Amino acid sequence: MSDPLGTDISTPAGADGQLGLDPYLRTVGGLEALAQALARRLVTPRGTLYRHPTYGHDVRQYLNDDLDEGDLSDIEAAVAAELGADERVDEAACLATFADETLRLAVTVRPVTGRAFRFVLAVGAVTVALLTVEAL
After folding, report:
1. What is the pLDDT at residue 29?
2. Which of 19, 27, 67, 68 has the smallest number of CB atoms closer than 10 Å to its CB?
3. Cα separation of 24 and 41, whole Å?
4. H/E run at residue 118
5. Helix axis angle, 69-84 relative to 30-41, nearest 10°?
6. CATH topology of domain 7-135
7. What is the DSSP letter of 72?
């Protein structure tokens, strides 16, 4: 029986927290696969996937901006909308904070399977780190 959230080649966070391709091309399924896919969606510039021109919203674009509270609200809405574009996501919410030149995104996702989870991304000028993924 197939996993309702899909199976994909693993792109885990390494020891440094950065997303990368599993060198052994192992697969993952369930919430882990979905969390990895959603994190990749947030670091992929829109229009860079040939067959999916509306896929992605690269949150690194905000790092050179002088962010204020209104900007953080816009980022939260954009992230939630981008994650909601994934057909496996029923609902997504984001809390964005910016400190020490790092944009931190705390995201709560309720997939169509109903089992909610949370993940946190730390977006810096050089790295994007997946800090935590936890089922709720």
Report:
1. 82
2. 68
3. 22
4. strand 117-123
5. 130
6. Nuclear Transport Factor 2; Chain: A, (3.10.450)
7. H
Alpha-carbon span 107 to 119, nearest angstrom: 5
Q: Which residues pair with 128 in a beta bridge?
A: 123
The 10 Å Cβ neighbour count of residue 100 is 6
- pLDDT tens track for 74-110: 999 999 999 999 999 999 999 999 888 889 999 999 9
* Cα–Cα–Cα angle for 116, 118, 124, rounded to 5 degrees: 155
Tokens of 15: 């020891």
Whole-model pTM: value is 0.85
Return left, alpha or beta for 17; rule: phi > 0 is left, psi -120 to 50 is alpha, else beta.
left
H and E: helices and strands count for the chain: 2, 6
